[in-house]
Amino acid sequence: MFRSRKPALDFAMRFFSSKYDISAQRDIGIIAHIDAGKTTTTERMLYVSGKTKRIGNVDEGDTITDFLPQERSRGITIQSAAISFNWQSKYKLNLIDTPGHADFTFEVIRALKVLDGCVTILDAVAGVEAQTEKVWKQAKGIPKICFINKMDRSGAGFSRTAKELMVKLKTRVLLVNAPVFDGVEASGEPMFKGVLDVVNQKILRWDTSDPENVSVSEIIEGSPYWGELVKLRESLVETLSEFDEHLVEYFLDTAEGDYMKIPSDLMNVSIRKCLLAGYATPVLCGASFRNIGVQPLLDAVVNYLPSPLEARWPEFNYEVPVAIDRKNGAIINKNKNLCVAQAFKVITDPIRGIMIYVRVYAGSLNSGFSAYNSTTGAKFKMGKLVVMHANLAEEIKQLRCGEIGVLTGSTVSENVRTGDTIIAHNVKKDGLRSLDKVKELGLRINPIDTPPPVFSAAIEPRTLGNKKLMEESIAALIREDPSLHISADEETGQTLLSGMGQLHLEIAKDRLLNELNADVEVGKVMVSFKETLNSCTALKQIETETGYRLSIVVEPLEDAEATKNASEDWHSLSTDNNFLIVEKSATYSASNWPLQISYEQFVNALASSSIVALQKNGRIANFPLHSCAVRVKRDWEVPTDTASVAQVLTLSRSLIFEAFKELSDSSFDILEPIMNVSVAVKQEDMGSVLQDLTGARKANILSIDDEHTLDSSQDADITFQKLADEQYLPADNTLNRANISTGATVNKVIRGMVPLKEMVSYMNKLRSLTQGRGTYHMFYHGMEKVSNDRLASILEEY
């Protein structure tokens, strides 16, 4: 059961000075579709835990985690925010609140890389929405609990949402609690007052004006909720028993077949075991805005989600032994003094300057110690360490295994970027020399993939004197948000800023003008087209008198994963599915590297040349290249004593440009971004909307479903549909909403794939066609070749 708010307040003052207990830590994130209630739930968590003394409100623009001016004015989360707080006088929670808008999906991607567990918020009225499905897939492999929010709203359906969860997200459910309704709202809807705690066999009712005022009552046999509790407990035990043999033994032997005699502690252990094994998902409900159900949710976080000791380990660039020590966390390569951390986010603070968010996976980071960036090969000194409470910083001396904190200092900001792996020594200030050069200093973890930009806008300074400030401001933006990209045309002098969507670029423009004070003009937002090679390749070679030999091929890349092999080193060139492929030399290797420059510097020089060349050499319309590879053949040689990064840059860049010149115009195709689109409309509006999509929008329609139909998808998993039909669920008058036969009252969902260019400003058209009743959601699917009938008009416009 949850505790009151006061012990958390008392404990907050002594947590950091107490003995560190890694098993009592949880690194969690809040993920969901936009407007499901992520930030509202976070605010209630902070209040009931004692972290804050007042409850922030999204509508009033005074929330803790949404602290950017753009977030407070728009009422949406734009960037992920980290905050730490305590619960139950024992546990420390490091929480990251993530955005729900598709334009800021990169914020979700990089947060998920460092999280051990997630809370997925579902809107009880809307059910499992498109962006929920997307973030669920992005969080694949991460244990998740679900919180069905907004149970106080008209049309809320706990059981319908739980059923959608099973079918759409392909998971069994463990109903840890269920809604309790007392009385009737003025609208005639039942009044949501609390939850039925299935595990502890109690009813919790909240005074909505005071979130700390919770009445807890036992459910005894014969009381109004006894029958419902018995059915829910029986269903929960039956699901757990399919996985947990120990629970079956206890049920048959000790509990004598009585579902009500199984103690709550044993059930919590079983639920945790099922969740960590990926077998089932615990489900809770509440109404965060009315302060209902947040304390049981926090209890579920600490009871069911993993500690850093139990969580999945990151991806390593090569196999390395990892042992778990309950006191110190992970021990990598049998070296207790090795610290490994990952930088996953960069922000610019007006006072502290550039701040690098990191997650420590092994050992500890110490203020003032030397560290090594194994991604770039740079050595630097650690500045001050801080932990963040949204936008407030608290200085600390050490970041330990499993903790999330921030690095500061000029040497850090110059040498660390998003996704970099940081290696350090636990004990010695300059202990890097004692670490193995290949096995430990060469270790890299958790690559963070940046999604490709789909919209671009021309940007230029108002005067020539403002050009330097513009470049510095753009560099600051991209350092913080690598999903923004900049490209410059040397011939025309035009600079393009590219991002994930119109809102993404709008926010970037606002920050440039109002936060970074860059005096710039930002042009019309346009779709980002690309070019690619079809089946053609080109090879160029050079051999210099100074000892350099390079043979470079530019080639199309169809399936990177399928074509990789052990004789090659693959290096992603950021976005656009482009790769540098360095065939392993018979003379040199990362472990046998006698050259003056490091292997990382050599590869980074080749990668820099490749990135520049791939931005410039689209032959048809000078668009950047997509799905291409720059291959360095295995006969490459570099002089041992005189090699320099500058020379490698110059030679490789020249070769790549010359290789592209060998190709004819017919070697290139134009690609455009294709979006997955879901349009929800009333049935009477479906004809006109469908005609517009297939005609003006060039859409490929995949399906037309009732909004809440659970089994209409062609690829629906029959197994989970059957499980959903067999699952016991409380009475819910919205369960059959999708099956109402009176046509006009049913919303239809049209799903399809549409060229992004045709969806620009679509909302205005949809409002016109549906009298403002239609809604749509879209997210990036991939790049596809432009059809011949549209090619001429695109080239004319761009």
What is this structure's SSE topology?
Elements: H1 5-12, E1 25-32, H2 38-48, H3 69-74, E2 81-87, E3 91-97, H4 105-112, E4 117-123, H5 130-138, E5 144-149, H6 158-169, E6 172-175, E7 177-184, E8 190-197, E9 202-207, E10 210-218, H7 226-241, H8 245-254, H9 264-276, E11 280-285, H10 294-304, E12 322-325, E13 329-332, E14 338-349, E15 353-362, E16 364-366, E17 370-373, E18 378-381, E19 385-389, E20 392-396, E21 398-400, E22 404-407, H11 410-415, E23 421-425, E24 455-461, H12 467-480, E25 485-488, E26 495-499, H13 502-514, E27 520-527, E28 530-533, E29 538-543, E30 549-556, H14 560-563, E31 568-572, E32 579-583, H15 599-616, E33 628-632, H16 645-661, E34 668-682, H17 686-694, E35 700-706, H18 718-726, E36 747-755, H19 762-770, E37 775-785, H20 788-797
Parallel strand pairs: 1-3, 1-4, 4-5, 5-11, 6-11, 32-33
Antiparallel strand pairs: 2-3, 7-8, 8-9, 9-10, 12-13, 14-15, 14-23, 15-22, 16-21, 17-18, 17-23, 19-20, 19-22, 24-26, 24-27, 25-26, 28-34, 29-30, 30-33, 31-32, 34-36, 34-37, 35-36
